[in-house]
Amino acid sequence: MAKAQFHKNQRVYVKPVGTWALVERVVPHWTKGLDEPLRVVYDCGLGRDFVAEELQQEEPIPEKLQSQSERWRVTRARNKWQPTEDCSRHPVPGTYPVVVTGEQDWGGWRVPGAEYDLNPSRVERQARLIASAPALERIATALVSWARKSGEDMPTELAEFAHDAQDVLSRIELGS
Fold it and tell me: Is the dihedral of CA 53, 58, 63, 68 positive or negative?
């Protein structure tokens, strides 16, 4: 007797093929007179059916690890579109801020040169704000968690901050 270990549209790692796929169909093999199927195979759209031992479910990264591993930082990149003498009013002449969001010193957020030249101090502030976003998310999460635990004992003004923090966190998660 077998029970389904995966469900339709679940993302799984297909070990024999070495790739990720979605379970398109769960195919039970029934025998007359039994309440459960003899075996269950999974159609992942890769040309043949796979048994549960050949598949591995996706392990979600715990939220605590996700937010702690986010170490964004502001680095400086060389300003290629203007000579240093033309940008002496910039906070750091000859460079512009780059927010690095990964382990390596590349990738992340950059601003177009023309936009930086219009208002360098505004762009510098934006870079610091973006780099601080993971820490601000941790603070908002802690505030919401604390508000849920304290319930009615919380001052009204602080409860409003917690509601605002929850709204912001929902927009981050849902993307709206």
Answer: positive
